[in-house]
Each structure stands twice: as C-alpha cells, then as structure tokens.
Amino acid sequence: MTDAATDGTATESGSRSILRRSYGRTVRASDSLLLRSYAVVSALVGLFMVALVLLGLPIWIAQTEGSTATNMIGRALLPIVGLALLAPLVGPVLYAAKNRAKGRADRKGDAALGAAGYLFVLSMYLSLVISAPESARSDPPALLSPAIEFFYGLPPLAGLLPPVVGAVLIYAVQRWIWR
C-alpha cells in the first residue's frame, strides 16, 4: 500500500486532485440537493469556459499579430480574466468539501453555498448581457424586455460588477457558515 492510501489523503481512485476530491465529496456526501446539482452544473460550466478559452487562443493570437502594444495587452488579458472566473465558480464546492472535512457541514449551509453558486453563474450571464456588443444583441422576450433593455443600456465596463458581487456573496456565505 502507498502512503497516500494509508493516510487517507487520496480518494478511492487514488486521485490527489483537490478539485476531484472536493467535487466527489460534495456530490456523494452533501445533504443538499441544491449544492449537489450546483456541483454538476459548475463542472459543466467550468469545462465549457476552459474549452472556450483554449479554442479562442488561436483567434486571439492571430488578432494581436501586428497590433499596437495596448491592443496586445488587452487581448492577452482576455484568457486570464476568463480563467480567473473559475475560482469563484468552483468556490462553493471547495468550501463545502472543506466544511465537511472540518465537521461543520449541514444542510442549510450547503444549500446556501449552492444558492450562492447559482447566483454567481447568473451574474456571469448578466455580465455577458451587459457587455454584449450591439451586433450580438437580440430582441428579448416581452416578459423580460424591460430588464434586458436596462442592462443593454449600461456601459460595457459595468459588466465587471456582477461577477465581483457574486464572488463576494460566495465568500460572505462561507463566512456566515463559519460564524
């Protein structure tokens, strides 16, 4: 037997990945269906974001060829910002696994982390709506039209605010659980 198998640091599959252990522990052991479903949704959204960044790299590299230094720096930051959104996306699952390991997990706390996680996913979508260029905007459904038109009217830089608020909300929920 290896040391990892005897000291309990590896999972049944022998993985030492923090993400794999946290996701596995959350999906298997959480009492909250909301958090369990969020773990699946955040994994899918995270994989989609990574694929989007990786598939976009050749285009970003081609677009920065022959550009000014300012344009190159701006486009070089796009993958970094895209991948930086992964930390708050996986945060609720990591926090829930940490709470479970420390013996502080309960159904109410897990549900709050799941709700905060879903609100973060919603905030990323809201950020895309706010920063969408004119050519990519479509006519919203009649029921949502006033709200969507309001968000379309905001300056594109305001699109940074919703994910920041969502990430702070996740942190605040974790602090509330640990009180």
TrEMBL record:
Domain DUF8056: start-end pairs:
14-177
Naturally occurring in which organism (per UniProt): Natranaeroarchaeum sulfidigenes
The family database entries (InterPro entries) matched by this protein are listed as:
DUF8056 (IPR058369)
Keyword ATP-binding attributed: no
User: What's the domain of life for this entry?
Assistant: Archaea
| Keywords for this protein | Membrane, Transmembrane, Transmembrane helix
One Pfam family matching this protein:
DUF8056
Segments passing through the bilayer: 38-61, 73-97, 109-130, 150-173
- The protein depicted here goes by the name Putative membrane protein
